[in-house]
Structures are given as structure tokens and as C-alpha cells.
Design brief:
The chain is α/β, with parallel strands linked by helices. Helix content is 28%, strand content 24%. It binds shikimate-3-phosphate.
């Protein structure tokens, strides 16, 4: 599918309720599936990625129904059943695959986790290594990629794992396996990655005895859970407003967990007129409204490396924004971008270059010099966030920007172009790429 984003003729204006947070939605479904009793979830993201998790939870024995705006999950109480045919298809979702691998490593049945072409190329050794240390019987392809075959395990043992990567997927995989292991499982990481698992487990009745630590045998209890709006989706309309003169956009009910707000801090450092309002100080997941009014003269920045994990999914968008601010934006310490849904450094560098932007790519980052941007056609490489980032840049290009393989936007934000159009953007969906 080809998405065409037309240069904006006027400022973007309006109020949006972003879709539910993807990371939190995956966890809400998986935790509710493991819990005893019926959980009630509101605000769940219903996109291709989270529907893959929902389908997997059903196959593992959870009974899931919708009543009005609520999703009701009757959990398994931790007694999962083997999926029919033995294979769970995770589509494009790395979170679904890695978190469920942790859950399945400690079960008494065999199971295979597989994904689409992109997911089956992403590195899985990073979870196989700790799971094997725990005693799991698990294998991947020779390249260390999915399909992941997990064999029935006698029992897992708890470990103290020092993760080489700041990754919430590795962390959550190990902690979830730890629930089915004997003893205590603890993980440390080079920098704090998003901490939704640690914040949400206590809501499902599992207290962590120490930070990033779980006791084996802990039982989850059903709960009522409200999923906040996804900051990783909200940022597209905020960045659009930061770029298009005359814009004023408010996004409501956005999750503002500090491990996710790096992009907002960068917007401020670039000089954007941004405010957070109506913040509710929930101990679990802080939520608020974010307002952004266009202000001229945004400047390029050196992105502090410490901020990288807090905005890892927003990096493609930052690269698009950097193309339309004054001066150079430098990103380093972001080699993880090469193993996301695509090699995001390479895909963004190629697309920006195609649109006439001056870029220099490094193994772990990129330099982008802001200036004029041409219209043209770019490849999204089937990466939802790259596709949406190019669509936002199209609003401030000299001509329309056409984005290939834009159907992947539905993995995280099916309503993206409708929301952008509601703010006054012009985005057209064509049937074919050719
Ligand atoms: C996620 C963690 C991040 C992020 C991904 C969602 C999660 O990946 O990029 O989109 O929900 O745990 P890593 O854990 O690989 O950094």
C-alpha cells in the first residue's frame, strides 16, 4: 500500500485521543492470561501486534470477550494449555514473541513461536541465552532467529542476570520466566529500559521483593486495568504540529512514564512550545495531556545518549523532525535501532537522502542537517514507525511524499492517517506500491 502525504496548506489544529499504549496492552493481555479470575481491561490497543498477543493468549487457554469498550480476560491461573498445532504466530511483534518465550520456557509442553519475514530476522539469542541459563530447552535457527522452539521443561531455576542490552523485552522475558522458576530471578541492565512490567506486576498481585526481581511461584490475580494512550503514537501529531506553522495540537490521556518521554525532552531542547497538563500522578503509569503550539526557529541538538532508551521507538520520528529544524542533530549510542522492525538507521538515512536531506550514517547513529526537503517516494521497509515518520515529514516537504509498504502502520496505529486528517493533514491511501 502506498501512502501519500501532501504538504500542509495550513496549521494542524485539534484534540486527539491516541490509541492505547502498545507495550502496556501486550503486558495487560499476557498478565491477565496468567492470572486467576477475570480481568477487565479498558483502552486496550487493538492493532495487528496486540491482536497477535490476544490470539496467542486465547490459544494458551484464556477466554477473552468484549463487552462495550471493555475487554474481559478469564485467565488460566498459570495453568496454560498447549496451543493447537503447537505453533503460535506472532506476526510483526517482537514484544509478543520475546515476552511469551519467557512465559512458555517454564511450561510442561512443547511450543514454537514464529513471526513474519521481518520478525523472523530479528535477534533472539538475547533471550535464549538467559533462558538457557535458567535451564530452558530452547532453540532457534542457526542465525539465532525465530522460529523459536521451546521444549517442555522439567523446571527452571532462578538466575541473577546482567543483561548486556538495555531492553525491556529481554528484561520482561527473564522476569516472566522467573515466575515459573524455583528461587529468585533478578536482572540488571546497562540503563533502565521501559519499566512497565515492574510497575504492572504488583497490580496483578505480584509484589517484587526488590527492584527488577521476582520470586518463583508467585501467582497473578485478575484486576481492572486502564491502558493509557500511547506516547509512541501521540508523538506523530505533536511532531507534525512542531513542524507546520500555525499548528496547535493537544493529545489527551497520554502515558507519561519517564522511561518513555525522551522524545518530549528532545522537543523541548529543540525549542518547541510544549506543555503537559492535567497530569494524574498514578503510582503505576502516570498519564496527562500534552499540548504543542507551533513555534518558529527550532534547533538541531546532540541527543544525550542517556535519553536513547527513553525514546528508542521515537528515533525515526526525531530523524524526520531533524530534517526540518535549523542546524545539525546528532544521534549516537543507538545501535539497537539496527535490529528493530527494520534497520531504522539505514531506512531513515536512505529515505531522507532520497528527499534531498544531508545525512551521515554511523554504526551507532546518524547526523542530520536540517533544511529544505523535496517531495519523492521512499521505502518504509515494512516498518510502521519509519512509514509514519516519513508521512509527518511530507507535511513540510516541497511536494508530496509517497511511502511504500505503508500497510504496516496497522501494526501499531491503524487510525494514523484518519487522526492526522482530523487535524487537517492530507494523506491518501493508494492500493498498490507500483
Ligand atoms: C518494547 C521494548 C522496546 C521497544 C519495543 C517495545 C516493550 O524494545 O523498542 O517497541 O514493549 O518491551 P527492546 O526491549 O528491544 O528495546
Amino acid at each position: 500500500m502506498l501512502l501519500t502525504s501532501e504538504p500542509a496548506r495550513k496549521g494542524l489544529r485539534g484534540v486527539l485521543n491516541p490509541p492505547g499504549d502498545k507495550s502496556i496492552s501486550h503486558r495487560a493481555l499476557i498478565f491477565a492470561c496468567l492470572a486467576k479470575g477475570r480481568s477487565r481491561i479498558t483502552g486496550l490497543l487493538e492493532s495487528e501486534d496486540t491482536l497477535a498477543t490476544l490470539g496467542a493468549c486465547e490459544q494458551l487457554g484464556a477466554v477473552i470477550e468484549r463487552i462495550g469498550s471493555e475487554i474481559l480476560v478469564s485467565g488460566t491461573g498459570g495453568k496454560l494449555s498447549p496451543p493447537l498445532g503447537g505453533v503460535l504466530e506472532m506476526g510483526n511483534s517482537g514484544t509478543a514473541m520475546r515476552l511469551l518465550a519467557g512465559v512458555l520456557a517454564g511450561q510442561g509442553f512443547d511450543c514454537t513461536l514464529s513471526g513474519d519475514v521481518s520478525l523472523n530476522q530479528r535477534p533472539m539469542r538475547r533471550i535464549v541465552v538467559p533462558l538457557e541459563l535458567m535451564g530452558a530447552d530452547i532453540s532457534t535457527t542457526a542465525q539465532g532467529t525465530a522460529p523459536i522452539r521451546i521444549h517442555a521443561s522439567g523446571s527452571l531455576n532462578g538466575i541473577d542476570y546482567v543483561s548486556p542490552v538495555a531492553s525491556a523485552q529481554i528484561k520482561s522475558c527473564v522476569l516472566l520466566a522467573g515466575l515459573f522458576a524455583s528461587g529468585t530471578t533478578r536482572l540488571s541492565e546497562p540503563r533502565l529500559s521501559r519499566d512497565h512490567t515492574e510497575r504492572m506486576l504488583p497490580m496483578f498481585g505480584v509484589e517484587l521483593p526488590a527492584p527488577c526481581t521476582v520470586n518463583g511461584g508467585a501467582r497473578l490475580r485478575a484486576t481492572r486495568f486502564v491502558v493509557p494512550g500511547d506516547i509512541s503514537s501521540a508523538v506523530f501529531s505533536l511532531a507534525a504540529a512542531a513542524m507546520v506553522p500555525g499548528s496547535s495540537v493537544r493529545v489527551r490521556g497520554v502515558g507519561l512514564n519517564p522511561t518513555r518521554t525522551g522524545f518530549l525532552r528532545c522537543l523541548e531542547a529543540m525549542g518547541a512550545d510544549l506543555a503537559i497538563e492535567n497530569q494524574t500522578g498514578s503510582a503505576t503509569e502516570p498519564v496527562g495531556d500534552v499540548r504543542l503550539n507551533y513555534r518558529a526557529g527550532l534547533k538541531g541538538i546532540d541527543v544525550p545518549e542517556a535519553l536513547v532508551p527513553d525514546m528508542i521507538d521515537e528515533m525515526p520520528l526525531l530523524m524526520a523532525l531533524a530534517a526540518r529544524v535549523d542546524g545539525v542533530t546528532r544521534i549516537r549510542g543507538a545501535a539497537e535501532l539496527r535490529v528493530k522492525e527494520s534497520d531504522r538507521l539505514a531506512v531513515m538515512a536512505a529515505g531522507l537522502h532520497e528527499l534531498g536531506v544531508e545525512v551521515e550514517e554511523y554504526p551507532d547513529g546518524i547526523d542530520i542537517r536540517g533544511g529544505a526537503v523535496n517531495g519523492g517516494r521512499v521505502a518504509s521497509a515494512g516498518d510502521h514507525r519509519c512509514a509514519m515518520s516519513f508521512a509527518v515529514l511530507g507535511l513540510r516537504a516541497a511536494g508530496p511524499v509517497e511511502i511504500e509498504a505503508a500497510e504496516y502502520i496497522a501494526t501499531s496505529y491503524p487510525g494514523f492517517s484518519a487522526d492526522m486528517e482530523q487535524l487537517g493533514a492530507r494523506m491518501q491511501v493508494g492500493e498498490r506500491d507500483e
